[in-house]
């Protein structure tokens, strides 16, 4: 699979597939083999955030997501970053920020869940914000 490490588009496709499958071990192994500047820096920071989130390190995940947010314009990646920043706030009992309205904000700007855990977080956020009709849509 070393040939994937030379083409940015193929590398991002492979990373995206690992993300959607929530195959964290394969994602981390492949990510750490990537040449430094092969994929977009915002996407790299986002991937590190997802990897750290899976490890349960909310602080490191939040730092990487904030770094990614600062590096990317309003795109589907930006929408995912907003969602995962909110997800960190939901998961962190010490957070002062209420992540549920932030999830709604991410949905409103275009985030769409791709995995079961994302769908569950979106659904519970909508229900907690008293928007059950949107949770079913």
Question: Mind describing the biggest β-sheet?
Answer: none
* Alpha-beta content class: mainly alpha
Helix share bin: over 70%
Number of strands: 0
- Count of helical segments? 8
The dominant shape is: elongated
Strand content: under 5%
Measured between the Cα atoms of the first and last residue, the distance is 39 Å
Mean pLDDT: 85
Regions with little confidence, pLDDT below 50 for 5+ residues:
none
- SSE string, helix = H, strand = E? HHHHHHHH
Global Rg: 15 Å
What keywords describe this structure?
137 residues; mainly alpha
Describe the secondary-structure layout.
Blueprint (H helix, E strand, L loop, with lengths): L7 H14 L2 H10 L7 H15 L2 H14 L4 H16 L7 H10 L7 H13 L3 H5 L1
Helix pairs in contact: 1-2, 2-3, 3-4, 3-5, 4-5, 5-6, 6-7
């Amino acid at each position: 699979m070393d040939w994937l490490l030379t083409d940015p588009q193929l590398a991002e496709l492979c990373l995206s597939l690992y993300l959607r499958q929530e195959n964290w071990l394969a994602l981390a192994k492949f990510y750490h083999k990537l040449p430094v500047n092969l994929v977009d820096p915002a996407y790299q920071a986002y991937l590190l955030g997802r990897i750290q989130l899976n490890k349960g390190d909310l602080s490191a995940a939040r730092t990487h997501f904030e770094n990614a947010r600062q590096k990317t314009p309003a795109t589907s990646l930006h929408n995912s970053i907003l969602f995962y920043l909110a997800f960190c706030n939901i998961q962190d009992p010490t957070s002062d920020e209420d992540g549920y309205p932030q999830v709604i904000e991410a949905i409103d700007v275009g985030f769409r869940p791709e995995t079961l855990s994302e769908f569950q977080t979106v659904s519970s956020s909508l229900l907690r914000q008293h928007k059950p009709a949107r949770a079913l849509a």
